Amino acid sequence: MVEFLKKQPKAGSWTLKLLKFTVLILAMTYIMEYLQYYDIVGLFWTASPAYLAAACVLSLMSFMLQILFLKKISEGRLGWMDAFNIEYYAFLMNLGVASSFFSLPKIALINHKIKDLKESMKLFTAPVIVGVSLRTFIIAATAAYIYAGAWTVMILTAIVAGSLLYTIISRRDFVRRVTMTPVDIVGEVLCIGAMNMVCFFIAYYFVLLSLGVSPPVPNAALAESLSYMAGLFSPMPAGLGVREFALTEMNTTLSVSKDVALAAAILHRGVVVINPLLAGALTLAVSGFVTGKRVAD
What we know:
- By secondary structure, this protein is mainly alpha-helical.
- It contains 13 helices and no strands.
- It has helices spanning 2-7, 14-37, 40-46, 49-73, 80-93, 104-114, 117-148, 150-170, 172-179, 186-210, 217-232, 242-253, 258-287.
């Protein structure tokens, strides 16, 4: 795996790199402007360690569920350590501002293991499709709850659940083509994806609680999901800057003060980045990577 990574060229055109650097500069300008008016650093020091610790645990659970998701949809072609290596190294490679657009390193890593580019594309695309579908439903449900009430959410949930169940039962080939996932495991895959999303959101909500604010859960879920989608489809690695901007502005619109919203967005980014790094370093050390032993491919 390490030799493979060393051979990888620096991906992405100069135009895309320039766009990424431009977005990053704009994001940093945005953050620096608010640092002049608000005591964001002071808010960091007032954050509750207990809530931040809980957010870290949930963020780590979300990362592990992401690994489990990839292992599950591979239908036995990837073991647990294979899926971990792919997710972890793709995570590291996508931290760079000049990294490939839309997680292309992950496709390369999967293909390096299973030697089938078409299947590698499917294993990359399936989590994206499931994640976007679940996030879209959450956005619609929370917006309906906020602006139209609980009955609207119940009706919407019943319609979506009924349609999904009918489609899985009566149009199995269609489900396979759209989700790129075997029909027999669609239910498990959706559950894993939903659990991943819930852990990710609760981690963010605990960050808000650590700063002494507790906005209504639907409002926070709507802001978090919209910002996640904005970051997902941005040219920046892991939505860096774009997600923080969207999360701050959405929370401000939904009754959280701008200084707390920005502090929460930055803290959550730290939690999301630091946990996989530490978990990966620990796992690789235990597996013998640091001592020079070969990690199972």
